[in-house]
Amino acid sequence: MRIEFLGHACFLLEEPQAKVLIDPFLTGNPLAPKQAEEVDADYILVTHGHHDHVGDAVSIAKRTGAVIVSTVEVAGELFKPEGVEVLAGNIGGRVRTSFGSVKLVPAQHGSGVAGGLACGFVVEIGGKKIYHAGDTGLFADLQLLREEEVDVALLPIGDFYTMGPADAVRAVEMIRPKAVVPMHYNTFPAIKQDPYQFKKAVEAQDLCRVMLLEPGQSWEL
Ligand code: NI
Ligand code: MN
């Protein structure tokens, strides 16, 4: 299993059988390490309808034939009308995929679509569980994820639109993943953060390993 960070909240999870792309905001992201045309995917998971998460999902799905996974209102408004293949689940539900499964879990954030819900994803792939939080503030139900026994949590630390570094440390305390990768920072001036401060704070409490990935860097699990 390989995790490649493509900037902002975009990650590519890759194993021999599948490429799973999450929140592919490449075009218009000043820190994107790749162009949308260079990215391949079998599945594209979209946490919510804001432009910095939907990004290039439609164009990549049309080019690659990837299936888009999202919540039902977001998928119905943004993806189904485009004629791309969609798996529209909802909060608490597990969507079966060719590589394993994707569980849609709550996120406290706007969905960008009237009546819709933002979500996070627990992805079971290659014998690992990866939790992508999407955009979210801190909320107490994050502690339910502890029972999922998450291997890697991808958590926003940017503040302003999502939880900031201090709340992200509290999220790590609740989720207790084996490792955490911070995301959703430094893309724009409003979300400028020092990820080393977050790393120090998590390690000071001996909560878990912290992997800092620069856009374009990957990590072999
Ligand atoms: Ni958002
Ligand atoms: Mn965002």
Explain this structure to me?
With 221 residues, the protein is α/β, with parallel strands linked by helices. It has a single domain (2-213), classed as Ribonuclease Z/Hydroxyacylglutathione hydrolase-like (Metallo-beta-lactamase, Chain A), CATH 3.60.15. The chain has five helices and 14 strands. The strands form two sheets. Strands 6-5-4-3-2-1-14 form a seven-stranded mixed sheet, with helices on one face. It has a seven-stranded mixed sheet with strand order 7-8-9-10-11-12-13, covered by helices on one side. Helix 4 (165-175) runs parallel beside helix 5. It is globular. The mean pLDDT is 98. Bound molecules: nickel (II) ion and manganese (II) ion (MN).
Count of individual helical segments: 5
How would a textbook summarize the main sheet?
7 strands, mixed
Number of domains: 1
Strand order of the largest sheet: 6-5-4-3-2-1-14
Q: What is the first-to-last residue Cα distance?
A: 6 Å
Quaternary state of the chains = single chain
β-strand percent reads 25-35%
What is the mean pLDDT?
98
Task: Detail the topology: elements first, then pairings.
Layout: E1 2-5, E2 11-15, E3 18-22, E4 43-45, H1 51-54, H2 57-64, E5 67-71, H3 72-79, E6 86-89, E7 94-96, E8 100-106, E9 119-125, E10 128-132, E11 152-156, H4 165-175, E12 179-183, H5 195-204, E13 209-210, E14 218-220
Bound molecules: nickel (II) ion and manganese (II) ion.
The site of nickel (II) ion has 6 residues, from loops.
